[in-house]
Every structure is written in structure tokens, then in C-alpha cells.
Specification:
Elements (H helix, E strand, L loop, with lengths): L5 E10 L6 H19 L3 E9 L3 H9 L4 H19 L5 E4 L3 H16 L3 E11 L4 E3 L16 E10 L5 H10 L4 E2 L1 H12 L5 E2 L1 E2 L7 E2 L2 E6 L1 H6 L1 H4 L9 H6 L4 E5 L3 H14 L8 E4 L2 E3 L2 E2 L10 H8 L1 H11 L6 E3 L1 H30 L19 H4 L1 H7 L1 H10 L3 H22 L1 H7 L1 H22 L4 H10 L44 H5 L1
Parallel strand pairs: 1-2, 1-12, 2-3, 7-13, 12-13, 14-16
Antiparallel strand pairs: 4-5, 4-6, 6-8, 9-11, 10-11, 14-15
Helix pairs in contact: 2-3, 5-6, 11-12, 12-13, 13-17, 13-19, 15-17, 15-19, 16-17, 17-19, 18-19, 19-20
The structure holds 5'-O-[(L-methionyl)-sulphamoyl]adenosine.
The site of 5'-O-[(L-methionyl)-sulphamoyl]adenosine has 19 residues, from strand 1, helix 1, helix 7 and strand 12.
Length: about 525
């Protein structure tokens, strides 16, 4: 497979100081939708996620829990691994920074930096925020706190420094040469102006605590948790074995998807570390926005953390996946509310998509003897070409992937779903206007053509929307008797002919149709509200 055909996507690795919540699920979900899309599009994909287990923040959480750090991280990383099962994520690997493979990798990167004189020993005196695991200059503080509002403490200790200041021009040139390195564009501007403002050398080791990867040849120091954490992206593809298949196939990563709060680490420090070690930087950093809960900032102290498993249990896995990717343009902040969630589940899924599938499949079941309609063959096609003018949604279903692909290549998930929904809605209009239940009496041959065309629209819609709603779309494709090995984008009709070799085979028996997107019904107290 050629290099262009490969795709490497990563989520951030999550701090194991707490239970996974909607914010964590969101970043991984975006990666999953992208990974699934690229696989269906014929690319060889590597999707990496995992947990960030070192640093002062995790050490403090372990102490608070009265556990040894290793026992604590072993226990807390499990629910993060469990997110994949809960939300149907298809990550190819799950990395933990306490694994030996990672320690080897990050120590090697350190050695490469030392060998190139990119790291020197000095003394750090300044502010540190444990919550953000970030150093802050006095001038950055706002009312004595970090810009994020996190408390800071004064730190004065021997420290190794990375010569970040020397990379300012190279970074600016790199952003210039790669205009889509940071998306969305507004975030790119933020990064560029931060770098233009001047960069200080970065403290990359600590001596005041122990829970980290030891600095090679100086065990009094542990590495700063961000140099440790970022290197997971290399470890995941087999670094330091740069001759190995993983690294050669997948590095540089195509996209690191991250939240806006950790953009600076990814878009400034990470490419600088890599360039300084003579390794290619990733191709893109996409920074998404933050979710609030019913208008309020999500925080442990407010007690309004949205627990992912409760969410999935209440609304359904595909409903949650759809909501998160459709409700908010990827990159913007968004608000989670029960009302908005129910509205998406009931309007977009149950009414629009669900109804289309249900109506068409039940008509086929009742009027066509429970088998794919079999209109009289026409010029080697299964249906008369004129049906494309009547069932206009089929023409658009054929062209759908061409519209959706460039959107997915820019992580515009919401726009991709909007595109898909244009066809869903159009198909519903086609059903209403063409009224197969009327044709059944007036022109049964035409009815078969129309229902056949609509079944093809549904096949296209289901195949194209698999990355977003994998479980429901699998059930739709089962109901159309589409074999499991015929569900990739290569099985979509590019639209040169009304039907092609992948089109539904007339006469194929179909299982009895069942609803796929149930309506959410309010119960008890909720209903009274
Ligand atoms: N460990 C670091 C990342 C290291 S990557 C080399 C970290 N971990 S985290 O657990 O605090 O956050 C991980 C991700 O969750 C971030 O991308 C962050 O933006 C995201 N979210 C946490 N809360 C969020 C919301 N309320 N909304 C959306 N995403 C949020 O940072």
C-alpha cells in the first residue's frame, strides 16, 4: 500500500487523576469517526489512544487516594480503556506511559536531544501549575493564577532546559509552509502570535518529586510530564526503532486531535522537540472546543461531570456519537443539554433517518414479497435510467462520498453529517411525492423501480454514515442483506450508471424490517418538566 494510503490519528492520552467524562469521550470519538472513515476509504489506519500516568498531578491524586502511584494508575487507567467498548471506538492500540516500551522511547528521544546540544542544565525559578502541568511566566499570571484559573506555586530547583528559544524562526517558517498545520484557522493565528511574542527555553525536568521517567544519567531528575506525554505518539509506532515497520508506515502522524486547552503543547513544543531531534513533525494538530453542561463549565467541584456510561445508557451509543459530532461545528465550544440531545435523537435520527429506512423497508417487505424489488432489467441496469430523475436522492447519494470526503479530510464532522442529511431529507421528500403505495395500484412496475432506487439510496446512506453510527448502520445494512465484506466505500456507486456491480441484487430475500432509531420518550419527573 502506498504511503499516501496510510493514516495515523491520535487522541491525547488522558490523565488518570479522575473518571473519564464527556470531554475525554469527545476527543476519542472524533478520532474514531475519522479512523473508521479512512479505513472504509481504503486506507491503512493506525488510531492510538491511551493514558498519561506520570507527573505531579497524578502523584497527588494517588496520595489523596492513599495508594502507591503504580497501583493507582493501574486501577484508574482501566475505565479509560473501557471507553472504547462503551462508545465502539476502534483504536488499534492503547498506550500507557508507565509501560517499559514508553520509558525506552522517551529516554531515547532525550538522548537524541542531548546529543544535539538541545538540552542543558540550569535552575528553574518560577511559577508552576500542577493542575495544568505547565510553567508560567510572572507576566502570564492573571490575579495570581494561571491563565486557565488554576492555582500556581513557586518552584525553584535545578532543572534541565530545552533550547526552545532557538526554534522560534524555524517554527514560524514551518507554520508558513504548512498553512493547515493547525486547524481551525482561528487557532492557528493564536499559535503564530504566541510564537511571534518570543519563546523562552523550557524547563524539561523536575527534582522535587519522583513520579516520572528518570532523566538518563541523572536520576535525581524526572522528565517534565509533557515531554514524556507527547512522546507517546512516537512510542505508539515503535520508536526508537525508526527502521521498523510501524514508524516507517505511520510517522509522521496525519493528525493529533486535541482540546484547545492543550494546543500550545502540541503545536509549539512538540514540533520543536521533534525538529530538534531531527524527526519530522506531525502533519496536523486539530484543536476542538470545550463542552459545557446545561450552560455551566464542567468541573468536579461543581459536581456536574457528565459520566459517559450514564449518557450511553440513557440515550444510546449511536445517539450520543451522532449528537456530539453533529451538534457543534468541530473546533467550536458547545453546550450539552438534555433537550438538545433529545431533539437530535428524535428529529434527526428517529424522524428523518429512522423513518426513511422504516418506511421504505416496510413497503418492500409488504409490496415486494420481502425481497429486494426486481424491476424488469433495462440496458444491463436493474432499473430504468429515468428513475434517477424521479428519485433524485439516488443521484445525490451517488455523489455523496465526493462531497463528504474533503470535509472529513479537514475534520469538519458536522458539515459531513449535514451533507448526509441533505440526502436523507431529499429521500423522504421523494417517498412522499412518488407515493409507492399509490403506484402499487396504478403502475406496479414503476413502484418496483422506485422502491429499488430508494433501497439503493439507503444502502449509500448507511455505508457513508458508518463512521458516525456504526451499530445502527450495521443493522440497516443487515436489513438490506448487504454482505459484511461489501460495506466499504469501494462498494458505493460512483454514479456513472444507475446501477453497478455492487448494487443490491434484485430478488435477494430480506429479513423482516425493525426500527433502528427509537424515539426517546421522557419518563416520570422528566416528562413533568
Ligand atoms: N494528559 C494531557 C494530554 C497529553 S497528550 C500528549 C491532558 N489530559 S486530560 O485528561 O486533562 O485531557 C484530555 C483531553 O480532554 C483534552 O483534549 C481536553 O481538551 C479534553 N477535555 C477535558 N474536558 C473537556 C470538556 N469539558 N470539553 C471538551 N473536551 C475537554 O490534557
Amino acid at each position: 500500500m502506498s504511503e499516501a494510503k496510510r493514516f495515523y490519528v491520535t487522541s491525547p492520552i488522558y490523565y488518570v487523576n479522575d473518571k473519564p467524562h464527556i470531554g475525554h469521550a469527545y476527543t476519542s470519538l472524533a478520532c474514531d469517526a475519522l479512523a473508521r472513515f479512512m479505513r472504509l476509504d481504503g486506507r491503512e489506519v493506525m488510531f492510538l489512544t491511551g493514558t498519561d500516568e506520570h507527573g505531579q498531578k497524578v502523584e497527588k491524586a494517588a496520595t489523596a487516594a492513599g495508594e502507591a502511584p503504580q497501583d493507582f494508575v493501574d486501577r484508574i487507567s482501566e475505565p479509560f480503556r473501557g471507553l472504547s467498548k462503551l462508545l465502539a471506538f476502534t483504536n488499534d492500540d492503547f498506550i500507557r506511559t508507565t509501560e517499559p516500551r514508553h520509558k525506552t522511547s522517551v529516554q531515547q528521544l532525550w538522548r537524541e536531544l542531548v546529543a544535539r546540544d538541545q538540552i542543558y542544565l540550569g535552575t528553574y525559578a518560577g511559577w508552576y501549575s500542577v493542575r495544568d502541568e505547565a510553567f508560567h511566566a510572572e507576566s502570564e499570571l492573571v490575579d495570581g493564577k494561571a491563565p486557565s484559573g488554576a492555582p500556581v506555586e513557586w518552584v525553584e530547583e535545578p532543572s534541565y532546559f530545552f533550547r526552545l528559544s532557538a526554534w522560534q524562526d524555524r517554527l514560524l517558517a514551518f507554520y508558513d509552509e504548512n498553512p493547515d498545520f493547525v486547524l481551525p484557522g482561528s487557532r492557528r493565528n493564536e499559535v503564530v502570535s504566541f510564537v511571534k511574542g518570543g519563546l523562552d527555553d523550557l524547563s524539561v525536568s523536575r527534582t522535587s518529586f519522583k513520579w516520572g521517567v528518570p532523566v538518563p544519567d541523572d536520576p535525581d531528575h524526572v522528565m517534565y510530564v509533557w515531554i514524556d506525554a507527547l512522546t507517546n505518539y512516537l512510542t505508539g509506532v515503535g520508536y526508537p526503532d525508526t527502521g521498523g515497520a510501524g514508524y516507517r508506515r505511520f510517522w509522521p502522524a496525519d493528525v493529533h486531535i486535541v482540546g484547545k486547552d492543550i494546543l500550545r503543547f502540541h503545536a509549539v513544543y512538540w514540533p520543536a522537540f521533534l525538529m530538534a531531534a531531527d524527526l519530522p513533525p506531525p502533519r496536523r494538530i486539530f484543536a476542538h472546543g470545550w463542552w459545557t453542561n446545561e450552560g455551566q463549565k464542567i468541573s468536579k467541584s461543581l459536581g456536574n461531570i457528565i459520566d459517559t456510561s450514564a449518557l450511553v445508557e440513557r440515550y444510546g451509543v449511536d445517539q450520543v456519537r451522532y449528537f456530539l459530532l453533529r451538534e457543534v461545528p468541530f473546533g467550536n465550544d458547545g453546550d450539552f443539554s438534555h433537550r438538545a440531545m433529545v431533539s437530535r435523537a428524535n428529529n434527526d435520527l428517529a424522524n428523518d433517518y429512522g423513518n426513511l429506512v422504516q418506511r421504505v423497508l416496510s413497503m418492500i417487505n409488504r409490496y415486494c414479497g420481502g425481497a429486494v424489488p426486481a424491476p424488469a432489467a433495462n440496458d444491463g441496469c436493474h432499473v430504468d435510467p429515468s428513475v434517477l430523475d424521479a428519485v433524485i436522492s439516488l443521484r445525490h447519494a451517488h455523489g455523496l462520498l465526493r462531497k463528504v470526503r474533503p470535509l472529513m479530510q479537514r475534520q469538519a464532522f458536522h458539515s459531513a453529517l449535514e451533507r448526509i442529511w441533505l440526502v436523507v431529507k431529499e429521500a423522504n421528500v421523494n417517498v412522499d411525492h412518488l407515493a409507492p403505495w399509490v403506484l402499487r395500484k396504478s403502475d406496479p412496475e414503476r413502484m418496483k423501480e422506485v422502491l429499488y432506487a430508494l433501497a439503493e439510496v439507503i444502502r449509500h446512506l448507511a455505508i457513508t454514515s458508518q463512521p458516525f453510527m456504526p451499530e445502527s448502520t450495521a443493522r440497516i445494512l443487515d436489513q438490506l442483506a448487504v454482505p459484511e465484506d461489501q460495506r466499504t466505500f469501494a462498494h458505493l456507486n460512483p454514479g456513472n450508471r444507475v446501477t453497478d456491480e455492487n448494487s443490491l441484487a434484485p430478488g435477494t430475500p430480506l429479513p423482516k424490517p425493525e426500527g433502528v432509531f427509537p424515539r426517546y420518550v421522557e419518563h416520570g419527573a422528566e416528562a413533568a418538566r
